[in-house]
Design goal:
460 residues, GMC_OxRtase_C, alpha/beta, binds flavin-adenine dinucleotide, FAD/NAD(P)-binding domain, Glucose-methanol-choline oxidoreductase N-terminal domain-containing protein
Length: 460
Amino acid sequence: MSYDYVICGGGTAGCIVARRLAENPNVTVCLIEAGPSDEGGCSSHNTVIAFIAPAENLDQWEQLGAHGWNSKATRKYYNKVFEKVNLHTVPPLNPLNQAFIDSCTAVNIPQIEMNSDAFINEFSNCCGYLQLNVTGLDRCSSSRSYLHPISSLPSNLTVLTNTTVTKLIIDQQTMIVTGVLTNTNENIKVKKECIVSSGAFDTPKLLLLSGIGPAQHLQKMNIRCILNLEGVGSNLMDHPECVIIWESNYPLPDQVIQRWEAALFFKTQTYSIKPDVMFHFGTEAYDIQNNLFGYPSEKQAFSITFNVNQAKSRGHVQLRSNNYLDPPQIDCQYFADEQKHDKTVMIAGLKLARKIVEQSPLQKWVKCELSPGVQIQSDEEIWNYCRKASTTLFHVAGTCKMGNVDNDNMAVVDSQLKVKGIQNLRIADTSVFPTMISVNPCITCMMIGEKCADMIRQDE
Ligand SMILES: Cc1cc2nc3c(=O)[nH]c(=O)nc-3n(C[C@H](O)[C@H](O)[C@H](O)COP(=O)(O)OP(=O)(O)OC[C@H]3O[C@@H](n4cnc5c(N)ncnc54)[C@H](O)[C@@H]3O)c2cc1C
C-alpha cells in the first residue's frame, strides 16, 4: 500500500488534515487511527466547550517564532472550521446557570458574549454563557463534521481504524520518511508527506519510537538515534484544575444541553496582565476525583471548577521502553513552578468561587458546601485540599512545540509544522502549541488541522 499522504492519528486534527488534503482528487490520502470504531479522538468524547483563543495567546506564538500563527492570520482557519463545525451559544434558560452569571456580575465581573471580538481582543475579567460545538444535541466532532458518513468519503481517502502506527521509517541518507509500520505488520509507503496527529502524549511517543528525540533518552531505551531533537516530549502543559461543590437547596433544573454551560475568567494576581484563572460552572457534582478522598457527595449538587489557565509548570513525556505497547511515561509536574504561580492562583481561585457563591442569586441555591467544606479556610488548608483534589482538565499540549528551529533548540517543528531535520514530516495536533492558550483548546486544535492542510496544499 502506498499513498501520497499518510496521517498517523485520526483524532481532532488528523481527521481535518486528511479530509482537506483529499479535496485534491489528484492525490491519495491514508488516515490511520488506532481506535477501533469512531475517529475524531478527543473531539468525539469531550465536553464540546468551544473557544477561539484570545488574540494575545496567538500573538505570543508569533512572537516566539511561529510565523503566520498570530491572531489575525489564524482567523481564516478558525473560519474554515466554522464552515463545518457549528457553534451554539447556550441560551439563558437554566435558572441555576443564570444565578451563577448574576452572582458574577454582582461582584463586578461583567457578562460577555464568549468568542465575540471583545472577548478575543480584550480578554479581561468576564463571565458568560459558553458556546458549544453542537447541532441540536449532536456533537460536532471532527469525525462527524469532516468524515461522516464514511460511505460517502472521496475515493482517494482511505481510513484505517483499529490500526496503530508503531514506527516511522526514515531513510537516514535523505532524512525522508518513506513509510510507516503498523501493529498489523504493514509497511504503508509514503510518497509525499507523513503527518503525525496522535495527540500530545502519543505524538512524542511515536517520534521517540522512530528514533527522533533526545539522544540520551533514546540510548537509554535502546533505540538508534536518527535525529537528536531535544524538545520531543518536553514542555508538557495543561490547565491544572480543582473543584468546589455545593449541595443544592432545589432540584437541578433540566434545561441543559450538557451540564457545563457557563464560565468565568478573572485576573487574581496583580502581576498577571490578563485573567489567570478560568471557572467552569457545572449543574452537577463533579466529584470523580473528590470521591477518591472520601469527600461527601450528593446527587442534587452544583460545582465550580477553577483552573490555572496560564500555568507555569511544565512536565514531560518519555518512553517506558522501546515496545509500542507500553504507554508513555507522563510526568505533569503540576505546581512545580519555582514562582509558585500555579499554587497561588489555585488558592485565589477557590476563594473567588466562594465569594461568588456568597452573592444572593447563588446563595439561595446553597444547602451546604460539600467539598472541601467550610471548615477549610486558611491558605494552608485550602492549598492542602487543592494539592490533593486537583487533576487534569485534559488540555495537554506542547510536547513537540512549534518555534524558531534555528535559535530555539527545544522547538520541534517550524512555522510550517515541519519537524526540524526531516524533509517530509509534519505534526498537527495540540503537541505543537508553543505556549498554553487561556481557554479550552479543541477548536484551536481543529484550526491547526485546517492550517496544516492548507500549507501542504500550497506546497503541492
Ligand atoms: C474528557 C475530555 C474533555 C475535554 N473537553 C474539552 C472541551 O469541552 N473543550 C475543548 O476545547 N477541549 C476539551 N478537551 C480537550 C480537547 O478535546 C483536546 O485538546 C483535543 O481534542 C486534542 O486533539 P488532538 O488532535 O491533539 O488529539 P486527539 O483528539 O486525542 O487525537 C489523537 C488521535 O490519535 C490516535 N492515535 C494515537 N496514537 C496513535 C498511533 N500510534 N497510531 C494511530 N493512531 C494513534 C488516537 O487514538 C486519537 O484518535 C477535552 C479532552 C478530554 C479528554
